[in-house]
Design brief:
elongated, Leucine Aminopeptidase, subunit E, domain 1, Aminopeptidase, single chain, alpha/beta, nine-stranded mixed sheet, six-stranded mixed sheet, 2 domains, 20 strands, about 500 residues, 15 helices
Length: about 500
């Protein structure tokens, strides 16, 4: 959740001492802490901190000082940046740390004091990139997960962020700042949408609820959308999605949204396919009890593509995108699909079911085929797919499998711009051979060895040679403790990188 009234603006027409606020954030390098010029009203307090050696401007260091401004007590938040220029991720993290402090002190209005030497803080020397990183980081740093306590307090967080820099007279500088600031806000809002959806309890988000959330997003931005119910899926032959949803009283849904950024719906169309398993018990192949509550996050892929779509709608790049979300609840019951079953997917391929807990790849198989039918010319699928990727990469990096190295390399460049870590996994032919079944075209489980790769390649079979990337966010979509830009719980992983990739096409 974020403050619904939040706004970010730029000011350079007033001395910082005259701007009303409850908190002022200052980026301070080690050198500037020694030589920097601070407003007269702050000098005594800052001198005391210097004498006692409480703050040195070291990277990641955070320190607060009570000072007076316009005869009112405020909190000065010093954020150390170390000795060297920061990349966008460093600036983003600095803003996150400062934002968390503004929430702790209940600051409604916050001034972000930018040094006159601001561009020396950035390796890119790009005004818009700096504004983007700082705005995005600040908004994401104020995020708080919704709770459901009886005496629930309303969300408290900053309502206004004022970026302030003295003596800036170039109109182009201010224009570039606003471009970056608006883009940073759009990236943050898309990530927060994904976090909010992923954090919803399983009883508050079943497939029809996920479809309703997608419909609201489509109506907000004037998008074309479609939701197929189980009867329509039967007519089309979506056996993968229907099988996974067969054990639940909450029927599956196939959700489609279309973003048209070009004058015509032709040429390259990027397909975004997100796994929407709103809760995963494992089905007949039941998961262990411990940790099952975190399976509310098994629709993190669906949340990611919806969040990315929201960001795209705010920025409006000239690109056409189709979003496809196969959504189901994987439950055990008398009607559930079973190990040993043979199912037929939308593509016509048959699959031998060896493990009903390997369900994500089945719904994504139908999702990829449907995205192709809707005109996609290249596809990115996103899924909390395997525990194996967590064993390999922990909750630090997203695993990627692709059939197109240039496509994947472009996507990894986007991840470097956003600070989201993506690690390519090898797609060797030997792994593909492990998917062969004696009684069907494919089998849905190959055992422990290379499990995250074979799971990805199973999905890639349904791309049928079309450029395709699979992103396994099982480790990165939902984390057990706060770290860096990520809060505890849902992270909104891959929203920003997908959006960045599409925009830069």
């Amino acid at each position: 959740m974020m403050n619904a009234k939040f706004e970010a603006i730029w000011r350079s027409d007033l001395p910082i001492e005259l701007i009303e606020a409850q908190a002022v954030i200052c980026l301070v390098s080690e050198a500037e802490w020694i030589t920097g010029h601070f407003p007269e009203a702050w000098k005594e307090a800052i001198a005391s901190v210097k004498e006692r050696g409480l703050f040195k401007g070291s990277e990641s260091q955070l320190f607060t000082i009570p000072v007076m401004q316009s005869d009112m007590p405020i909190t000065l938040i010093l954020v150390g940046t170390g000795q060297y220029p920061l990349n966008p991720e460093g600036l983003r993290l600095a803003a996150v740390r400062a934002a968390k402090m503004t929430v702790k002190i209940n600051a409604d209005q916050v001034v972000f004091a930018l040094p006159s030497s601001l561009l020396t803080y950035s390796l890119s020397q790009d005004i818009a990139a700096v504004a983007h990183a700082l705005t995005e980081g600040f908004i994401l740093g104020t995020y708080r997960r919704k709770t459901y306590k009886r005496n629930q307090q309303a969300y408290i967080g900053p309502e206004r962020l004022i970026f302030h820099q003295d003596k800036v007279f170039q109109d182009e500088y201010e224009q570039q700042w606003y471009i970056g600031m608006e883009r940073g806000k759009a990236f943050a809002e898309g990530t927060i949408l994904a976090r909010d959806l992923t954090n919803l309890p399983g009883n508050m988000l079943v497939p029809r609820d996920l479809a309703s959330a997608a419909e609201r997003l489509a109506e907000q931005h004037g998008l074309e959308y479609e939701v197929l119910d189980e009867q329509e899926m039967v007519k089309k032959g979506m056996g993968g999605l229907l099988s996974v949803g067969s054990g639940s009283v909450n029927p599956p849904r196939m959700i489609v949204l279309k973003y048209q950024g070009k004058s015509a719906w032709e040429g390259e169309i990027i397909g975004l396919v997100g796994k929407g398993i709103t809760f995963d018990t494992g089905g007949i192949s039941l998961k262990p009890r411990l940790g099952m509550e975190e399976m509310i996050s098994d629709m993190g892929g669906a949340a990611a593509v919806l969040g990315a779509l929201h960001t795209l709608c705010l920025i409006r790049p000239e690109q056409n995108v189709v979003v496809v979300i196969p959504s189901a609840e994987n439950m055990p019951s008398g009607s559930a699909f079973k190990p040993g079953d043979i199912i037929t997917t939308l593509s016509g391929r048959t699959v031998e079911i060896l493990n009903t807990d390997a369900e994500g790849r089945l719904v994504l198989a139908d999702g990829l085929t449907y995205a192709k039918e809707l005109g996609a010319t290249r596809i990115i699928d996103v899924a909390t797919l395997t525990g194996a990727v967590v064993s390999a990469l922990g909750d630090v990096a997203t695993g990627a499998v692709s059939n197109d190295d240039p496509f994947l390399n472009e996507f990894i460049l986007a991840s470097k711009r956003t600070g989201e870590k993506v690690w390519p996994l090898p797609a060797y032919t030997e792994f593909e051979e492990m998917l062969r079944s004696e009684v069907a075209d494919l089998r849905n489980s190959t055992g422990r060895y290379g499990a995250s790769i074979t799971a990805g390649l199973f999905i890639g079979t349904f791309a049928e040679g079309m450029p395709w990337i699979h992103l396994d966010i099982a480790g990165t979509a939902y984390v057990s403790k706060e770290r860096g830009i990520h809060p505890k719980g849902a992270t909104g992983a891959m929203v920003r990188t997908i959006a960045d990739y599409v925009i830069n096409q």
